[in-house]
Amino acid sequence: VQLMESGGGSVQAGGSLRLSCVASGQIFTWKSMGWYRQGPGKQRELVASISPGGRVNYSDSVKGRFTISGDNAKNTVYLQMNSLKPEDTAVYYCNADGVYDGSYYDMDYWGEGTLVTVSS
What we know:
By secondary structure, this protein is mainly β. It contains no helices and eleven strands.
């Protein structure tokens, strides 16, 4: 299973970006897919996650500004980021958790990350 992120870039404060994460390979079942971020000098933190049933979860810092969604037919998860702030600057990583790939259960997969830079 491979996760490929796209959509990062540079934007001014108040702007918007949409991140995409495409999963390739065999994913029979999964527990959640989500977006994490790691800012300069900070630990990686959960931004948003979505379950197969569509239940979503957001960190307090992005509630009301970011929206996570998924397209099961395209094996893609999106993160719409609005009203971006300089503190949102980070490398954003896609994650697939609790994956059964046909061989192994409860696998955890990560993308390589995409950089989001928000200038003031």
